[in-house]
Design brief:
Organism: Nitrospira moscoviensis
Strand order of the largest sheet: 1-2
Mean pLDDT: 80
Low-confidence stretches: 13-23
Subcellular location: Cell envelope
Pfam families: Cytochrom_NNT, Cytochrome_C7
Largest sheet: 2 strands, antiparallel
Distance between the termini: 85 Å
Number of strands: 2
Order of helices and strands: HHHHHHHHHHEEH
Structural class: mainly alpha
Helix content: 40-55%
Strand content: under 5%
GO molecular function, one term: metal ion binding
Keywords: Electron transport, Heme, Iron, Metal-binding, Signal, Transport
Shape: globular
Length: 236
């Protein structure tokens, strides 16, 4: 009868795997573990200086569901580690990482009401730039387009990019080349992050794209209070 040794071995392997997982999960959840990969290191360095420095990597990049943990953490995480150990990781300037909009909205759901608040009551810094655009309308439009767009379509650099041209915060892309002082990102020509940084509002507001049967307006007044526009776009 040799089933007992086999059962003991199997039990030992399962117990060891559970114990190893119990130690590995907290370790791999820590931002410094992510930063151990040279591809992620620049993102870590920008994160520790950002307004989200108290929010861990997994809080944004792993959806807080069983499905999210399996797909975003277990499967994609294992693949990333395998590429790091045995393959050729992408360069930091070609890094593409997704953040599900529902993760953003778990903290920022109030953003849906920005366009419903009187301008005098808008919170800073949107009050300073007179931003009255409807985030809800944009999210509904993104959903209708079905191209996987969401919060990071406009706010991709808010954590991992630096403020530009003296702005006090990282502003959504689309406001980086509208004034008389041109700005270009420091990423290499042709890289994913450079292309992302240079994308602007006109990717949709191009005078051709339609939503609900109407061509999207290209004018700044579509989203901003007119008297605030010059102060918002010019660097002082």
């Amino acid at each position: 009868m040799n089933w007992k040794p086999k059962a003991t071995l199997a039990l030992g392997l399962v117990t060891g795997a559970v114990a190893l997982s119990g130690m590995a999960i907290p370790l791999t959840n820590h931002p410094k573990f992510c930063a151990s990969c040279h591809t992620i290191a620049p993102s870590y360095e920008s994160w520790v200086k950002s307004s989200h420095k108290d929010v861990t990597c997994v809080s944004c990049h792993v959806r807080p569901t069983i499905e999210g943990w399996i797909e975003d953490k277990a499967i994609k995480g294992t693949k990333d580690v395998a590429v790091y150990l045995f393959g050729t990781p992408p360069e930091p300037h070609n890094l593409n990482a997704a953040v599900d909009s529902e993760v953003c909205l778990s903290c920022h759901r109030h953003i849906y009401r920005v366009s419903e608040v009187a301008p005098r009551d808008l919170p800073p810094p949107v009050k300073d730039v007179g931003l009255i655009m409807s985030h809800r309308a944009h999210m509904e439009a993104f959903s209708a387009r079905g191209r996987g767009e969401g919060c990071t379509t406009c706010h991709a650099g808010v954590v991992h990019d630096a403020p530009i041209k003296g702005y006090p915060i990282v502003i959504p892309r689309g406001h980086v080349s509208a004034d008389e002082q041109p700005w270009y990102p420091g990423y290499p020509e042709g890289s994913s992050l450079r292309t992302r940084a240079l994308n602007d509002c006109f990717r949709c507001h191009d005078g051709k794209t339609e939503h609900r049967g109407k061509v999207l307006s290209r004018t700044c007044e579509t989203c901003h209070i007119p008297e605030k526009i010059s102060d918002s776009l010019l660097f002082n």
